[in-house]
Structures are given as C-alpha cells and as structure tokens.
Design goal:
With 374 residues, this protein is an all-alpha fold. Helices cover 67% and strands 3% of the residues. The protein folds into 2 domains: 123 residues, no CATH class; 243 residues, no CATH class. The strands form 2 sheets. The protein has a two-stranded antiparallel ribbon with strand order 1-2. Strands 3-4 form a two-stranded antiparallel sheet. A hairpin with a 2-residue loop joins strand 3 and strand 4. The longest helix has 42 residues.
Length: 374
C-alpha cells in the first residue's frame, strides 16, 4: 500500500471528523437540533458523541507515521519537540476560549472579557494533553508497552472514579473529577453548559482519553505492518467488533458516558472507529472509490486550522450586533435559513452551510498547497 493511499484514508477519516465537529457545533438554533446531532444527556452515546474520540483516534493514526522521525532523534530533542507541540496546541485552545476578548454585558455595552473567568480546558487543550502524554508513552516504552499502559489507564481510571466518588460515582454530583477540577482549576474556570460548574474536558477524564490516541496509533502501526491485504482488513473489523461487544458488557457496571469519558466509552468509540476506518480503507484502498471521498479529504489536510477558524468565525458572529437583543448568528438563522426550511430543517441547513463554507476555505488552501502544521 503506497503512502498516498495510506494518507488518503487517514485524511478522509480526519476530514469526516472535522466536518462532523463543525456540523454539531453550529446549529442555527440550539432549540431545534435533531436528536442524533445532540450529545447524550448523561449516560449513552449518540453519533455526536463519536466525533471527539474519533479525532483523538485520528491523531494517533497520524502519529504512527510521524513518530518514526522521533525515534531517530535523541530523547532530549524528541521530548522537546513533543512538549513544544503540546504547549502550542494547548495555548491555541485557551486563546480560542478567550477570543474575541470582548462581550456584551446586560446593559448592552461591549466590555473586556476578564481572565478571572476564562475556561482553561476544552477540546483543543484536551487534544494537546492527550497527544503529549501518548507521544511520550510511545516514544519511551514502544508499541507493546503502550498497549499495556493504555489498559492500565482504563482500569486505574475506573478505580479512581469508584474510590474517590461520592454517592453515585457515575453521576454529575458524585463524580470524583468534578472535585478535582474545582480544586485544581477553580470553579470560575470551568464550563457551565450543565447549569453548574463542570468541565466535560476535565483533568481526571483526560486520562482515559489518552487511550483513544494510543489505540489510534496502534491501529496505524498494524495497518503499516500488515500492508494492503484482506487479512489486515479482517483484523480491523474483528477487533472493532470485539471492542464494541466488550464495551457494551462493561457498560452494565461502568456506563458508557462521554461527559466523564468512562473506560467503556473509550472501548466503544475505538471499536466503532476501527469499523469506520475499515469501511473507508475498503472503499478507497481496495475499491479505488476516491472521488466520493474527495470532499472530506479537503478537511483532513488542514484539520486543526479549519477547526480553529470555524470557532473564530462563529465567535465573531456572536460579537456583531444586528439589533438590541440579536447578534449576527441569530440573524442569519432567523432571516435566511429558518424562512427556507423551518425550525429543525433550517437549523440543520445553517450547520450544513458552515460545513460548506469551511470546506471552501480548505479547498482554497489545498489548491494553493497551503498546509498548516502545528
């Protein structure tokens, strides 16, 4: 299997994930979102809950190629490069949380966003930490030990949740990670989407999320070692099915839950990622169906940049006022997309429009051979 074929499958997988992120993050109205495009209220897993772990899995896939270069470097140089990349992605995430630095207050005045309530964690900070920890584990301990360490992380996390949780350790109130985040980060720096200070990308739940990256790396190594043949494809399919089955069994005692990133959730999402990757590899590498995949390939070539720009543009929408109680985001939905499709279809059209908008950005960059790597 040629490098171009390998990278095409990875680009498409990453591209699907980035397009999914933009789709689920930008409905025209959060009051009108189709159920599959919403996160599970607590336990359970919707298609939307697959998007973030898929991205971490794709990070691991890409690492199976890039880490080869690190092996040729001395430990000091490799660690420096890993930590530098980790810090840069983390800071970009914090920057995006703070952007656009101003907000409208209750009196309709534009005021500076105080750092005292800046959210520290989030999607990009978690990606950074998961990448950094996984890269260090793989660099120093290799593939086999990384697999063992991943298993240990899942079991240790389960023990920590049980040992330090209060009441129902799998509930929001009893989850041990909530107390850790309040103590380490402070309530004022946590996400408030649940109505209370709680960060779904908190410190403790980052431990099992590291495993999504490690398993993605191991899948990439497996594909390279086995090469383009049907036994390799069968191995991915069987492993994916076994992981999903194991996760569903574990779910009976350790519920699948994205917001606290349970160990069963890790196995479940990795299993489905393997199944999806198998389908993509069969379609692209084995059958040569590259044209239908071209749309998502564009997203996969500049995934981090396109994701960041999608956040920047939407945050600017919220800053631009079109009326006393209306911003540009709401105006676009109410005056363009809702009249076209109604409530739910209009909200979906709004999201699809932005998927197309950022695809266009990626397409222009690809045509000009602009690829931004962090």
């Amino acid at each position: 299997m040629s490098n171009s074929q390998r990278f095409l499958s990875l680009d498409v997988f990453r591209g699907l994930t980035v397009a999914g992120m933009i789709l689920v993050n930008n409905p025209g109205s959060w009051s009108y979102v189709y159920t599959p495009l919403e996160h599970a209220p607590w336990h359970g897993c919707t298609p939307t809950d697959l998007v973030f772990p898929f991205f971490l899995f794709a990070v691991g896939n890409a690492m199976s190629f890039s880490m080869k270069k690190y092996q040729e470097l001395g430990h000091a140089t490799a660690v420096r490069k890993i930590l530098k990349r980790t810090l840069l992605i983390f800071l970009i995430g914090v920057f995006l949380n703070w952007f656009p630095f101003f907000r409208w207050n209750a009196e309709g005045q534009l005021v500076f966003k105080s750092l005292s309530q800046l959210r520290i964690m989030g999607v990009l900070p978690r990606i950074a930490l998961c990448y950094g920890l996984a890269a260090l584990i793989i660099h120093f301990w290799g593939e086999r030990r990384a697999f063992v360490i991943a298993g240990c992380l899942l079991l240790v996390y389960w023990w920590l949740v049980l040992a330090f949780g209060q009441g129902d350790p799998y509930s929001l109130e009893g989850y041990a990670g909530l107390r850790l985040d309040k103590w380490l980060l402070g309530e004022q720096h946590l996400y408030r989407g649940e109505g209370v200070p709680f960060d779904p990308e908190g410190i403790l739940s980052t431990l099992p999320a590291v495993c999504n990256v490690i398993f993605g790396y191991l899948a990439g190594v497996y594909i390279q070692q086995k090469g383009k043949d049907y036994p390799m494809l069968c191995g991915l399919l069987v492993t994916g099915c076994l992981l999903v089955f194991t996760a569903l069994c574990w779910n009976m005692v350790f519920p699948i839950n994205k917001k606290i990133w349970t160990s069963s959730y890790v196995l479940y999402t990795v299993g489905i990622a393997l199944l999806l990757l198998s389908v993509l590899m069969y379609a692209i590498e084995f059958r040569g169906w590259t044209k239908p995949a071209a749309f998502f390939e564009v997203f996969g070539k500049n995934p981090l940049f396109i994701y960041v720009m999608s956040g920047v543009v939407v945050k600017l929408y919220l800053l631009v006022r079109t009326g006393p109680d209306e911003n540009l985001y709401g105006w676009l939905y109410e005056h363009i997309f809702r009249p076209i499709g109604g409530n739910y279809p209009g909200s979906l059209l709004f999201a699809l429009f932005h998927v197309g908008l950022f695809w266009l950005l990626g397409w222009v960059m690809d045509k000009r051979k602009i690829y931004i790597r962090v």
